[in-house]
Design a protein that fits this description.
single chain; about 130 residues; mainly alpha; 6 helices; globular
Length: about 130
Amino acid sequence: MSEGGSSRLKTLLDYATKIGVQARYDRVEKAQIENLLASLEMVEDPQISPLVTAAYAHRQAARLKRGYRTAKLINEAMEWLYRQNLGREEARRLLGMAKWIFESLEKVRLSIDVRDLTFQKLLGELRR
């Protein structure tokens, strides 16, 4: 993998980590993460798809009155994908990883700041 590709993958994993952990903190339902993945199919254009998913995340947070911080992180991640000229497939990868991370924390108590959290830091916390 090229250096740029490796850097992109690291950023993708870091966003997935932040989203998964924040969703757990926000007590987002697992079904909502699955709905986010499904929302990637709402439009035909694979490049615009992540932006539609960002809007959907905010809509769900407002409707359910929870998950506002998670929605902001999803918005940030989807915007990053869009600016990198990455579309639906990478968004699916990112949100799929976020779902895995969310599920892995079901019985884990964390008290870490999501803002500075990385994939590697989370793995270190899980080894404790």
